[in-house]
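Support reply, case 0932

Customer input (verbatim):
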Amino acid sequence: MYHTANDQYDERPAMPELGVTDSPIANEAFFPERDADEAPDFSGTLRISPAHMRLLPQARGLQIEGCGDAGLFPGLTLEFVTADGVLVPLQRGQMVRESNAGQTSSFWCVIPQLGRVWRSRAQGGWSNAAFPLMLVSSCDTHAHQGLARFRYKDREVSELEFQFVQQTAPYLLKEHFVAWGTAETRWMESRTADTAAQRAQALSELERRLPHKPLSDLAREFQRGRLNEFGAPVREQWRVQTGLVRDGTLYYQEAHTPYGNYPYPLEMRFGVRSILKGVAAPLALLRLAQLYGPYVLALKVGDYVEGLDAKYRRVRFIDAANMTSGVGGAGSWKTHPNDPEDGYLDGRYQEWMDARSHKDKLRQMELCDRPYPWEPGTVMRYRDQDYYLLGAALDRFLKSVRGPQADIWDMLRAEVFKPIGIPHAPIVRTREPDGRRGVPWFHAGYYPLLDDLGKIALLYQNRGAAGSRQILHRGLTEDLLNGRDALVQSGDAALGPAGAERGPKSGNLYKMGFHFTPYVGAVSGRQYFLPTMRGWGENEIVLYPNSLITIRIAKAGHLPPGQSANSGAATRTIRMVDRMSPL
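Our regenerated output:
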């Protein structure tokens, strides 16, 4: 039931304690050896003290203004039960904030995932508990993938040992690094009465995962070397995880780290950056269109978000989703040819990203936003602010029809994610001064599993249906997959057909968070525009007309001097899929 990449482990010698090592230890220490014995059940709450982390290399600039110390492991309270040898964090899949900080607050939140318990020989009656643990932040949108372990005996527990050995692309903390350390830990009675329900829920979640196999199993079906291009052109050292969905089965590669393969590859959560643009807004728009009608796409952003430039009264929800608001003002007015990233990071972009509350983000936009001379819906300019505003507008629209307690991300979780088997969906929100729950970021800030991304892509490929249930508006979902009315990123639709002509030389198209990658089938000679979700750092999900899906999670951002992320043509993985199953 609970397959990992490391079921092949043989008997191992005792592993060193993290507190006395000069670097992280082998990841295999966080997974039971082959001849491990069953461990007794564990139930309780761990109160974990803040702890300074050791880092390699020693990173600079760890004090992030307004967000805390990035060199400090947060003080946490985590609850656990066990179920058939699985260690079940009750806060799994959630961004757990620091609950018992010291004099200095940590920059980090954590997301715990399902782990294992076991008993090894010669441990004097102590049992082992280990679980995947991600370092994430409410100020940033990348993730450090890590592991944690403790020992338990009756009501005694050891220190928590942790190490973070992989990461998605850094942003505020621009250096790639690994971290490790120990934290004082105290056991307390569980605060949850119905632990049996928690056990049952965790096992049910595992049962609903996509069927999954190592990619090496799929490779045996093809000529030797046929799948070698998978994940290319991104160089292997900058990849974090890759997956391929074929006939409903998720095939995944080993998740390499400097300290061995990550032992829980399907429990890794990732900072996927702008891949969220192909998730949150399209799913919300297509779900609302299914419930209330396609007219929702034509509602105006400025009617639902106060304090914006007057031009937003003409910007439809679909215009914001297409990156065609016609607002920004930091880039040039040149549109033929158009550079879709002209002005993207100019102006007060970083100040806007750093702004904590919704009001502060609007204030930063007011300081620099100016309307462009073209009308909404005609020229694509990549702009995170418009996706953030679209999320806020969608949330206000939902409140207008369901009441003030409605929340757009809660709607997605309950009405889209849950029916397709995604029980948890951690998201970054604004941090409001009065303590109320903030606005969910729709431009970046989602931390999915590989399984989650596969299920979302399958929902699109199934035209918005999950079994017999139509979750998304079918016609609009088909239009999206086909790129119908998608804009040529380098064009200007205001110039008429000549400014929006699609063809082999037109380059990428864009619509509702999807880039459409041009590709000509090697056998068919047919021109395709493949729906593609992209996120900074070379994260990418591609949907194919032969029903395959490829997923690449990478960390190719802020590379060291002299390093390059890519090698060869951008379509190398697409060509590999074409050879597997001709397009």
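We compared this against your earlier run and they match. Two observations from our side: Residues 1-13 have pLDDT under 50 and may be disordered. The longest strand covers residues 127-136. Please reopen the case if you see a mismatch on your end.
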